[in-house]
Design brief:
mainly beta; about 75% strand
């Protein structure tokens, strides 16, 4: 009898744990982090001399920023996030190709703001999915070691999908899995020349992309 009562009390506590984390009036304060690195080796064909030149491209990027959300209904939250991102890409040519090509060192600074709506689908008391629409704005400045620079503005909207896990009552960990989004980009090549583009894509996350969330009550 005592064992049965203890089990029922534990089950009730676990159910309240999951409900309390996603019930109406709950607030989340989060910290988002993303990191990616790449290294690619290829070759450039020189048909005139009937030869090829090796080239190596290395890149890295990271993103950090806070987020805040509020549950307007059970398992449904609305929130905002902001952040700073940095991207670096370097192209190195072999010594035999330096007379034909110039090494490129490109850097990009990004400032991003996002508004989102999320639906939480919990499979267990601690594990589930989160999905919903988002809109975001990105302001980026690109510079190279050769003195070239331009400013890019991106407007995006779409739906993303992620997983979440709550190891303890007040702390959650989440990671994005994929998103479908529409993007409008405006790139200022010169003061009088702006390049505009539109794209629709499906993206699978292939980088370290984590969010740590602190859950606090009504």
């Amino acid at each position: 009898m005592k064992k049965t009562l203890s089990f029922l009390l534990l089950a009730f506590a676990c159910s309240n744990l999951s409900y309390a984390q996603t019930e109406k009036g709950t607030k989340n304060l989060g910290f988002n982090f993303n990191y990616r690195s790449s290294n690619e080796k290829a070759s450039i064909a020189d048909n005139y001399n009937n030869t090829s030149y090796p080239v190596e491209t290395t890149g890295s990027s990271y993103f950090i920023g806070p987020s805040f959300s509020y549950f307007i209904a059970n398992k449904l939250e609305i929130g905002v996030s902001a952040g700073y991102g940095y991207f670096k890409n370097k192209v190195d040519y072999s010594q035999t190709a330096e007379t034909l090509f110039t090494d490129l060192d490109l850097k990009q600074n990004q400032y991003i703001g996002t508004l989102f709506l999320r639906k939480h689908i919990m499979f267990t008391d601690q594990f589930g999915l989160r999905t919903g629409p988002f809109i975001s704005y990105t302001h980026a400045k690109i510079t190279t070691d050769a003195g070239y620079h331009n400013v890019t503005k991106d407007y995006s909207g779409g739906i993303n999908l992620g997983i979440e896990y709550f190891p303890i009552k007040k702390i959650g960990i989440a990671a994005n899995l994929a998103d479908v989004s529409y993007n409008h980009s405006e790139q200022n090549i010169t003061e009088s020349n702006t390049y505009k583009s539109n794209s629709l894509g499906f993206n699978l996350t292939n980088s370290l992309n984590l969010s740590i969330v602190w859950v606090f009550g009504k």
